[in-house]
Amino acid sequence: TPRCGSSTADMPTLFGLLLGVIQKPPTLQIGHTYAAITEPNATFVTFSVVVAEDLRELRRIALDVSTPNSPRYGKHLTSAQIAALARPDPSDVASVRKWLSHPQTNVREDGSVFTVTTTVAVAEAILQTRFERVTNAQNNSALRAGAIELPRSVRAVYGVHNAPKPARKRT
To answer: Minimal CA–CA distance to 115: which of 52, 157, 54?
Structure first.
């Protein structure tokens, strides 16, 4: 089901999953050069995918326990109760697992976080983007994805909008 009251009628899909969440890379400082990945099937990338959780109930409870005239005022939740309320929907976890399944991916799942290692070519297909090698003036480089399109069950992807390490300051 779509989040935030949106309709599924005009939403694009990938492998049957609703798309529509676009995560753009931050802007880099002037002076970086960009180059295409020359061997996308031999270059590997590792990134993390975080499954979206529905925090509306947790927010409502937090407001109730903090509002003096609420019957729940001062009745704080335990860590276990918070963890249970912040857990993503099992169907969202399953859809992300399916989205990431590919013969050339190594996926490690830890609750709502998936860590993926794969080739640049497969990552480009999964994330609907292109990777480039970006290099700074000190000749440090990093793989960097353009804007990525994500299923609605994904909150964020980390490790694809990298920047080269800056030069070390001498002391």
So the answer is: 157
Q: Hey, what are 26's tokens?
A: 């931050």
Tens-digit pLDDT profile for residues 132-169: 999 988 888 888 999 988 888 888 889 888 888 876 77
* Partners of 33 in the β-ladder: 135
How many Cβ atoms from other residues are within 10 Å of residue 17's Cβ?
17
| pTM recorded for the entire structure | 0.69
Question: Cβ(117)–Cβ(106) under 8 Å?
Answer: yes
SS3 92: helix
* pLDDT winner (highest mean) among 26-35, 45-54, 109-118: 109-118
Identify each DSSP E strand in the chain by its residue range: 13-14, 17-23, 33-36, 44-51, 106-110, 113-119, 131-135, 141-145, 148-151, 154-158
Q: Are strands 44-51 and 106-110 parallel, antiparallel or unpaired?
A: unpaired
Q: What tokens does 119 get?
A: 């080739």
CA distances from 89 to 32, 76, 112 (A): 41, 23, 9
The CA distance from 121 to 131, in Å, is 9
